[in-house]
Design goal:
Oligomer: single chain
Radius of gyration: 23 Å
Shape: globular
Largest sheet: none
Mean pLDDT: 81
Order of helices and strands: HHHHHHHHHHHHHHHHHHHHH
Number of helices: 21
Length: 425
Amino acid sequence: MSMSTILILLLFAAMVLFFIQCVTELNLQMDAGYVFGFSIFFDLIGHFYKLYVPGNSLFLLLAVPVLPVLYCLFQRPTDSWDIVKDQGIWLWFLFFGYSIVSLSWAVNDSSGLVKEQILFIHGVIPGVYTYIVYKKYGKFSWTVVALFGLAYAIAHLALGGYTAEYPGRLTLPGGNPIFDARMSLIAVAVSLWGRNIPLFVRLVTIGVAMTSAIYTQSRGPLVAFVIANLIGLLIIGVNKYRKGELKAYYSYFQLAFVAIIVSGIAASFFTTQITDWIGGSRFAVLVDKGQLEGDDNFTGRLDLQLKALGKLEQYPYFGTGLGGNTPTVARDFPHNIVLEIGSELGFVGLFLWGLALTVSMWAVKRNTILVVLLLQTLGSALVSGDFGFNYEYILVAFVSLAFLPKREARGAGNNEKAAVPNYRA
C-alpha cells in the first residue's frame, strides 16, 4: 500500500470521527434533502471530480452519504431498519431479483448485468440512503434540493458547449444533452411544487433551470415535464374542488387569465421571430407532424421499439433475459422502459415492475411534488434512455416509499403528521 493511499485513508478516518463527534455533541438533525439532492444531481459533482482526480467518480455517490446513513442505522435501529419491513421495498427487490435470474437465459454477451449495476449505483442505493435518513429524522428540505438543481443548471450554462456529436445542443463536457435536460427540469419541478422554498430561490431556480433545459434542445424530457406538471395541477384542482376551496383561488385564476392574454398580445409582436426560432430548432417536430415523421431520431427509435415489441411477442412470458434484446450495441435499445422490460423480462417482469411502481405511487398520493417527480421521471424513461440509465424514477420511487404514513402502511388509517415532512432547510 502506497504512502498516498495510507494518507487518504487516515484523512477519511479523521473525517468520520469528526462527523460522528459533531452529530453526537451538537445533537444535529440530519436532513434527507441533502442526500436526495446530492444523489439525483450527482453528475455535477462527478464532472468536477473527474477534472482533477483520475478514475471513476461513482464511488463518491456511494461513499459520501454512508456517514449519515450508518449513524442513523446504529443510533436508533428500530426506526432506521424499517426498510426491512417495507412491503414496497421488498416488491422492488423482488423485481430486481427476477431480473438477475433472467440473466441465466440471456445471450452470453448480454449487457444486462452492467445495466443492473448502473441502476443500483445511481438509483437503488441512493434511494435506500434517503429512505433511511428520512425515516430516522423525518426532515426533508426541498429548498436544499432546489439549490442542488440550481447549481447544476448554472454549471451547465457556464461550462457546457456544442459538440459534433450533439450539434446545436448545449451539453456538459463528456455528457449527454438529454440527461442535462432531465436534471434541469427536475430542478424546475422541485421549485414549482416544493413547499417552504423561499420565493427568491424558487424564481431564480425556475428561470435558470428552464433556460438550461431549453438550450439542450431535448424534446422528450420537456414533453414529460409538461404532462406531469399538468397532471399535478389537475390533482390540486380536483382536491380543492372536492373541499369547496376553489372560490378562494378565483383571484389567482383571474390574474393567470390576464397574464395569458398579455403574454399572447406581447408574443403577437414577435410572431416572425418566434416562428423562425421554433422552425430552426429541434422543437419544431412538436408542432409539425410532417417534420416529426421525417425526423431521423424519431423514426430510428420507432423502429427499435417495433423490434422490441416483436421480441415481446416472440418471448411473451419471460422475455429474452435482461440485456438479451440489446447485446453489446451501445444504443440499440428501444428508448422506452416499458418495451425494454417487456422484451427482456416478459409479462412476468412487467407485472412485478408495475406492481412495485404502483405501490410507490400509492405511497405519495397526497404528496403532489413526489407524484409530479415520479410521473415526470417515468415519462422521461418512456422516451429515452435504457434500463440502467433510467435511474431517476427508481430513486424517486424509493424515496416515495419513505413518505407512506406508518398507520396507513399497517392498515390502520392515516397519520397526516407522518405523511407531511418537515420542510425546514
